[in-house]
Structure formats: structure tokens, C-alpha cells
Amino acid sequence: ILPTKYNYYIGNDPARWREGISTYKTIKYTEIYKNIDLKVYGNNRQLEYDVIVKPGGDPEVVNFKYEGAESLTVNTDGELEIKLNHGTLIQKSPALYQEISGQRVEVAGHFKLLSDNRYTFEIADYDTRKPLIIDPVIEYSRYLSGDGQDWGNAVAVDSAGNAYVTGKTDSTYFPSTSFPHDVTTYSNDIFVYKVDPSGARVYVTVFGGTAYDGATGATPEAGYDIAVDSSGYAHITGPTHSNDFPIWAGGPGLLPFQSTHGGYTPGDTDMTSTTTDAFYVALNGNGYRVYSSYIGGANWERGNAIAVDNSSNVYIAGQTAPYHYSHSSDFPIAGANIIQSAYGGDDDINDSFYPADAFVTKIHFDAATPSNTALVFSTYFGGTGNDVANGIALDDLGDIYITGATNSTNLPGVSPSSIQSSVAGGNDAFITKINSAGTAIDYSTYLGGNRSDFGKAIAVDTEGNA
């Protein structure tokens, strides 16, 4: 048995959820032909299979076929090249041998191509009284993918050197055929993929709801960013269009700080009128979902960036807009004396366009009692124009640094002493530092030239330089 575990949290029906599904290093199929066995195994980087021809077996009857391959060729090194529409797999030239009197005796042989993407092995004379092992190796092309479209959006590394990748998958299996994914009902779902320092998979978790399956103009469900705390919990944010996102707070009947989709339109069965909410999800070291919540109001929100400190506080930055129809803002604002409690966009700039504000949300995550996880503060950040936060980072004191893009001429915190005190182009990047309580802006500055500029990510060193 392998350490890799697979977890499904698809939709909001717990009866459909599965967790802790085991995987195995070796599978042996006996008598695939008379007196011939097939052993399949791997080391998470390479897939190997052994054809074991026992006494009385005829190796000439063995043949394999690749489904979905464009073509098979044998190169000058005797390797089998399997051309796919997104790359090429390589089967190394087979090793053929017998164990005779405790010694490994090599047998000559090579791949032999047949019609219809099939192949077999051409083998020299050998001792038919002893088993013959035919041992090719399949080398992966190092893609993290299934059979459809897959995006990796962010990566995090913990103190032990484990790497975590998040993004979205629209594959019928991800990342291998041992992990089928129901794209008929659930497409464009979020994945988190964890590997240890050697590159061996630790877990794969896929979660999401039914939305975006054909919804015109919707934002796909995806993990936009990921952060890992000192206990190995992975924290993920992004957008969801689904009214049946798998919400959880540690047990049946326990609710997170926002259990319903703020942008859901009642009766919208195909989600074409429903807007997106941001989401927050926490997974433990085995990839089990510990906590998940919506973050959003009646219009649309995206969680673009996430960071975590050493006190189990999680910080999310993104973008939110007001409710189109009433021009009232209902994004979940929390905390005392926060830097901006009201939506800053000017609805009168354009009657058909409602500019967005950035937002910053701080959550205290309680791993022991997930239902106690709560908002510490949540604040708008923006001027009268369009503002979005794309990156977030923390310093050793818990102060918050965000970057993104703005066309607001009155971005909060900008002053005559800022590095750049006014907008220079259509959109400018910006950098803003906010204290850990969310009550004050330490500094804010535009960064841009006479065209459009965007801040996508930010980091802070030990001296507090951004």
C-alpha cells in the first residue's frame, strides 16, 4: 500500500463524499494469457510492468494496445515512443531476463510494432523451463494532468519540504486513471496536490460544486492560491459559482461563518444568473477537508490570494463588487474600526458598470474545533474606480502587504510622500501595507507608467521590505 490518499468532496451531499481512499504500489493480474501473468507497479515517477512468462507460456501471444494514442514508433535506441495529442510517453527498451541458479541471465529482445497501435516483443531463444521476465519502464513526461484541461495556479512549500499545488481540473480523471472524476455532473473543480520532498504523491483532493457546466460567462471554480501553516494544514481560496459547494465546519449541522452562496439567484437551476463568491477551504495533512465557507455578497467576488501566520490566522485578498440592482453593498464586513467599512466605488461613473473594490479578510482558523473558526475582520479597500487585490504577504509582526491593480485616483493610504502619489496610466499597480488588526494603513503607493500595469504577487523579507 502507498502513502498517497485520495479524497473527493464534490457537491454538498455528504453521501457522495469519499475520503482516505488507499492506493497500491503493485497489482498482479494472473493468467492474462495461459501461463502468463502481468505485474504492474510504480515509484510515483515511473510506471513499470513485468510480463511473467511461466513454463508452458508462449510470449508470442502477448500484445498490448494503446487507446487514444496518435501513433507508436520505435526509435534508434529501441525505445517505444507513444505520441499523444499533448506530448509523448516513452517506454524504455525492455529488459528481458531469467533467474537461473540464483543468477540473473539476460535474454535478447526488443519491441515489435503491430497494426492499430499495438505492439508485442520479439524475443531470442531462452530456457523455457524457467520463468521469463519482460520488464519495460514507462517514463512520465512530468505533466500534472488528466485527460482534459488542467491548470496549476499556485504552489506552496512547508517547512518539511512538502509541495502543495492548487488549480482546477476539467479532466475525466485526475491525475491518473486510478482517480476518475465525474465531469458529466461536476466540471471545472478545484484540486490540491501534495508531494513529499522526493516528489512522491501524498494526497490528491478534488472539491467543488455543479456550477459552470455550460454557464455562459461564469468564472470557473478554481484554486487561485494556497498557503500552508506550521501544522501542515493547507488553506485555499478562489472563486465558486456553485450553490452546492461542499460547505463544512467539522461535522453535520455545524455551519461555517457563511454557509450560503451570497450571489445565488433562487430558481437558477443552470447557474447562468448566479454570480460568484470567494471561498475558503482548509485541508489537514492527509488532504481531508476540515473547514470550508463562502465569502461573498449578492454580486461577484474572487479570492485571489491567501497567507497564514504562526497563530492560525488566515488572510485572504481579492475583489468584490456591489449588488447591481439595488446599488447596495452586502459584502460580509466584520471587525471594529477597520480601514474601510463601506464600498468605495462610484456607481455614477458609468450607469452600466459598477467598479469593484479590493477586499482583505482575516480569519482565525481553529483546527481543534473547526466550527469555532471565525472572521476577525473583513474590510473593503478601494477608491471610486476599479480596484483588485491579487497578492498578499505577511511580515513577522503580522502586518499585511497587498498588491494588485487600480484606476482609482483616490486609493486609500496614498499621500504626497508616497513613492508615486497619482495614477499614471489606465491601470496602475499598487502596494499597500495594513496593520495586523486591519485598523490602519501604514503606507500605500501607486506603481505604474503611462499604460496599464498590474501587481500580481508580493513577498516580504525578514526586515519588512516588500
The major beta sheet can be summarized as:
10 strands, antiparallel
- The helix-and-strand class reads mainly beta
Beta content comes to: 35-45%
Gyration radius, in Å:
27 Å
Q: Mean pLDDT, rounded to whole units?
A: 88
Describe the structure in your own words:
It is a single chain. The radius of gyration is 27 Å and the shape is elongated. The chain has no helices and 31 strands. Strands 3, 4, 5, 7, 8, 9, 10, 11, 14 and 15 form a ten-stranded antiparallel sheet that branches. It has a six-stranded mixed sheet with strand order 2-1-19-18-17-16, with no helix packed on it. The chain has 466 residues and is mainly β. It has strands at 2-10, 18-23, 26-33, 36-42, 46-53, 64-65, 71-74, 80-84, 87-91, 95-100, 103-106, 109-113, 118-123, 132-135, 137-139, 150-157, 163-169, 189-195, 201-208, 225-228, 234-240, 277-283, 289-295, 301-308, 313-320, 357-364, 374-381, 387-394, 400-406, 428-434, 441-447. Helices cover 0% and strands 42% of the residues.
Topology:
Blueprint: E1 2-10, E2 18-23, E3 26-33, E4 36-42, E5 46-53, E6 64-65, E7 71-74, E8 80-84, E9 87-91, E10 95-100, E11 103-106, E12 109-113, E13 118-123, E14 132-135, E15 137-139, E16 150-157, E17 163-169, E18 189-195, E19 201-208, E20 225-228, E21 234-240, E22 277-283, E23 289-295, E24 301-308, E25 313-320, E26 357-364, E27 374-381, E28 387-394, E29 400-406, E30 428-434, E31 441-447
